[in-house]
UniProtKB/TrEMBL annotation:
Signal peptide range: 1-21
Matches recorded under Gene3D superfamilies: Periplasmic binding protein-like II
Name by which UniProt lists this protein: Substrate-binding domain-containing protein
Entry keyword set: Lipoprotein, Palmitate, Phosphate transport, Signal, Transport
């Protein structure tokens, strides 16, 4: 009997131990299930945040550090740009100071500016409207106005400047005949066909077909339309040889003063010291298009936005009202 009681007691103890172990296993499984659910919830929250960020970007919100591009010193486009947007200011002594942010990346031509902006999603730059290639970059509206030749002509788009040519003294021979063509009905038709604004013409061209060679040089913004004018002129005067050299507006004027160029090109007004030594002539009006990368959702800026970006007050696209 005693032996039976011992055996029964041992069986009861074993059953109790098994029950306790089972409860421990159930608790562990429950804890594991809880932890897995928490992890899943965290992952779902992260995924939702990523989806929200993606949706925000898709909705057109721009963000990230702005990459500012400008033109080189001596560029007529830069000179006109900083003047028109108030980036250039006079100091206490009356001297003009260019306040373009020091970190701006400098490009040395219209074409390089466009390809650089096209390759940088965060970039902003500016180019001659007549040279704008919208397959590469996007021109933004400024103060609600689109950058078009029609808006420049009507005055709606106010970011514009003159294209000037200049000679040392009164031109003669081939230089005079070419300038007469540029200002004629035929020449100004070429100007307008290439996206620039004509301020009128002198009537039908009556050339004398002089022989010889002249060199025209200067602004990279004026160069494209000058090449077209050269092509049209030499079609009616095959006796002429015209070499067009691309540099910048300042070089165009100084090289005309020293006799290197017969005709200089400037995409701005002549400076006082230049005008004192040269005879200028406006051949067209051109807008300056403010450009961004085609993937940038920004479509419009105010003049104040551009000023703040180029002087370093605004440094991130998220700071632009959208």
């Amino acid at each position: 009997m005693i032996m039976k009681k011992v055996i029964v007691a041992m069986m009861l103890m074993a059953m109790t131990a098994t029950t306790v172990a089972g409860c421990g296993s159930n608790d562990t499984a429950a804890d594991t299930t809880t932890e897995t659910a928490a992890e899943d919830t965290t992952a779902d929250t992260a995924d939702a945040a990523e989806d929200t960020a993606a949706d925000t970007a898709a909705a057109g919100a721009a963000s990230g550090a702005i990459s500012v591009l400008s033109r080189e010193d001596g560029s007529g486009t830069r000179g006109a740009f900083i003047e028109l947007f108030g980036i250039e200011q006079k100091d206490a002594d009356g001297n003009k100071v260019d306040n373009t942010i020091d970190s701006a990346e400098i490009t040395n031509s219209t074409s390089v500016m466009m390809t650089t902006v096209a390759g940088n999603k965060a970039a902003i730059g500016y180019v001659s409207l007549g040279s704008l290639d919208e397959s590469q970059v996007k021109a933004v509206l400024i103060d609600g106005a689109e950058a078009t030749a029609e808006n420049v002509k009507s005055g709606t788009y106010k970011v514009s400047r003159p294209f000037n040519i200049a000679t040392k003294g009164d031109p003669d021979g081939l230089a005079k005949d070419f300038i007469d063509f540029i200002l004629s009905e035929e020449g100004q038709a070429v100007v307008e066909e290439n996206g620039y604004v004509s301020e009128g013409n002198t009537g039908a061209f009556e050339g004398t077909k002089p022989e010889g060679k002249i060199t025209v040089g200067g602004s990279s913004s004026v160069t494209p339309v000058m090449e077209k004018l050269k092509e049209a002129y030499t079609a009616v005067n095959p006796n002429a040889t015209i070499e067009v050299q691309q540099s910048d507006s300042t070089t165009g004027m100084t090289s005309t003063i020293d006799g290197t160029y017969d005709i200089g090109m400037a995409s701005r007004e002549l400076k006082d010291e230049e005008a004192a030594q040269l005879t200028p002539q406006v051949i067209a009006l051109d807008g300056i298009a403010v450009i961004v990368n085609k993937e940038n959702p920004i479509t419009e800026l105010t003049s104040e936005d551009v000023l703040n970006i180029y002087t370093g007050v605004t440094t991130d696209w998220s700071e632009i009202a959208q």
